[in-house]
């Protein structure tokens, strides 16, 4: 039998996709948003999804779905907006964000179920939060060996600049975040170059990208191809907001480079005013399909909506499948190792 995993805060299924690629059976997923849960179910019909607030999920909800099976892994990425660097420019509002408390819900479920392994992923800012330190201590008291580090997912085969905090835990023996895996760097070209043009595509998700008025279209057309920046435009073409303050947000209205990793794919990934999300050559933002591929979703991954804002949110908030696949494969190796010893 495949090892059993539970995906908390599952989103549209990026973490589950990676765990399945690693060989896990994802038995249960929890997702509060109904539309996002629909997308999850389209791609993972075999998984029992609990579509409600995790604060309302108890041990009985999960137990009835796993039918007494041993749970090897609980994994999840609690909403991270309150811990993000941008959110914490105003630390008072950032740290008081009610979503921060959802990280406690991850621990609560772990405490109830006591799986053999845990995996938590979040933004680096979580490590500075007092509740995270408390959770580390509480997990240790439950008997978990722990390791946590801030890593760049570009080192794990994901064509994207994205630093994340990863916490791994094991009840069965020592555990360490996999690093220095010798994986060749991947680029934007590796993932989206071969796509057909938007005009010729039969994929409705590949037809979704930003639209603009004539002034902004003109500005985009003048930004140098393959990695150009708005700062390279003559100043008379700068937007008024950029003239007033050019400090920070330098990626805004920037193009991706074919032979580099992309900028971080966020919930604003279909809007070039939110970051470096312009296509390397074409005068448009990347499409929803291109964004999903840069997140390492399979080319045929389905989405339940074509609403641009909702799609961008689903894709940008997702756990890149390739990243969770590599973490999952490492945990699979430990399962084989520890279950072949006298530790259990």
Structural summary, described in words:
It comes from Bacillus stercoris. This is Cytosine-specific methyltransferase. It catalyses: a 2'-deoxycytidine in DNA + S-adenosyl-L-methionine = a 5-methyl-2'-deoxycytidine in DNA + S-adenosyl-L-homocysteine + H(+). Pfam families: DNA_methylase. The protein is of the alpha/beta class and about 350 residues long. The chain has two domains: about 5-180 and about 320-340, Vaccinia Virus protein VP39 (Rossmann fold), CATH 3.40.50.150; about 190-315, DNA Methylase, subunit A, domain 2 (DNA Methylase, Chain A, domain 2, Alpha-Beta Complex), CATH 3.90.120.10. The chain contains twelve helices and seven strands. Strands 3-2-1-4-5-7-6 form a seven-stranded mixed β-sheet, sandwiched between helices. Helix 2 (about 35-45) links the parallel strand 2 (about 25-30) and strand 3. The longest helix has 18 residues, at about 320-340.
